[in-house]
Design goal:
Layout lengths: L8 E8 L4 E31 L2 E19 L5 H14 L3 E7 H4 L1 H6 L16 E9 L4 E11 L2 E10 L5 E6 L2 E2 L12 E2 H8 L1 E3 L18 H12 L4 E7 L6 H23 L6 E5 L12 H7 L1 E7 L1
Parallel strand pairs: 12-13
Antiparallel strand pairs: 1-2, 1-8, 2-3, 3-7, 4-5, 5-6, 6-7, 9-10, 11-14, 12-14
Length: about 325
């Protein structure tokens, strides 16, 4: 499963078709957990609560795109994210068909009589979730959308299903590269871009470059922090960098030092191969678990600690 950036970001949803583009901004740090495209099907769009043994639905037929995200944002709540996404959809021409939350929706029964992805792709707290469905009508096509937002621990989960009766819907996540909101314990990272951090502190966490436990493998995707870092190095030709790998505290120190070095080397290799940064400008080191930025007593903290940082050498 692909991991997301620990970069404070403004994330942009794009719903595109042959006629229009819809952009929705929200504060958060996101990882896509699920994507499925269905060429033709009937989707039972919820348009009412659970009542008398079923959820009131509107059968809509067309091309369906299903996506879900896992979102980190200390400042965002289930309510604020729902309000933001809903308002921006309305601004783009979507009209609400139905909206509810938790007990008004039907609590447990609504959740389990509605098509919702299972954990870990989409987690629904049965005591704290928001749902709405909407429709957008144009001269050439009709779009339907369902959205459910909930919380799991300190994280938000967002599921969006999009149905279009004429063209295949395209829903893409884009991110600007501001960093730091996920690093709640360090004020110096608050709402800074990679460029700003390097100018101000000479170092930064490459927050979208994360690793699964025990792994030094990078996903085959664009890392926004590396894009930003490459631009910074292109603008500062005399600078060199050292990439420093870190691990959580599971296992012995020697193995973790080696693993952290492998992680830093993977990032260095990507920076060199993808962005044509000269090898003599990029070095790497590993220090294992000797410099944690969060507690190693829980999974959340251990995940924060599996990272690579960049330090500028002038």
């Amino acid at each position: 499963m692909r991991f997301f950036c620990y970069v404070f970001l403004i994330s942009n949803f794009f719903i595109t078709n042959v006629n229009a583009e819809l952009r929705i901004n929200f504060s958060g740090v996101a990882k896509q957990t699920f994507k499925e495209e269905i060429a033709s099907t009937t989707y039972e769009l919820p348009v009412g609560p659970f009542y008398n043994g079923s959820v009131k639905t509107l059968p809509v037929k067309g091309k369906v795109l299903k996506k879900a995200w896992y979102i980190k944002s200390p400042s965002e709540t289930v309510t604020s994210l729902r309000d933001s996404v809903r308002a921006q959809l309305e601004n783009e021409g979507f009209k609400l068909l139905y909206e509810c939350e938790t007990q008004i929706c039907g609590g447990f029964d609504f959740r389990f009589h509605t098509e919702i992805l299972p954990d870990p792709e989409m987690h629904v707290d049965l005591g704290n979730y928001k749902f709405f469905s909407a429709r957008r009508q144009t001269a050439k096509h009709t779009e339907f959308l369902s959205c459910i937002i909930s919380r799991g621990g300190n994280s938000l989960f967002l599921q969006l299903f999009l149905v279009n009766n004429k063209v295949f819907p395209d829903l893409e996540l884009k991110s600007s590269n501001e960093v730091g909101e996920a690093v709640t314990g360090s004020l110096k990272y608050s709402k800074k871009t990679i460029h700003e951090l390097l100018d101000e502190f000479g170092s930064a966490v490459l927050s979208d470059v994360e690793f699964n436990a025990g792994s030094s493998d990078l996903d085959d995707k664009d890392y926004l922090s590396l894009i930003d870092l490459a631009k910074y190095l292109d603008s500062n030709k005399k600078f060199k960098v050292v990439l420093v790998g870190h691990t959580d505290a599971e296992g012995d120190l020697d193995k973790n030092v080696k693993l952290s070095e492998d992680r830093a080397e993977s990032v260095a290799g990507r920076l060199i191969s993808q962005f044509n940064i000269r090898k003599d400008r990029v070095s790497f080191e590993g220090i294992g678990f000797l410099s944690p930025r969060a507690s190693n007593w829980n999974a959340e903290g251990r995940n924060h600690n599996r990272r690579v940082e960049v330090i500028i050498l002038k």
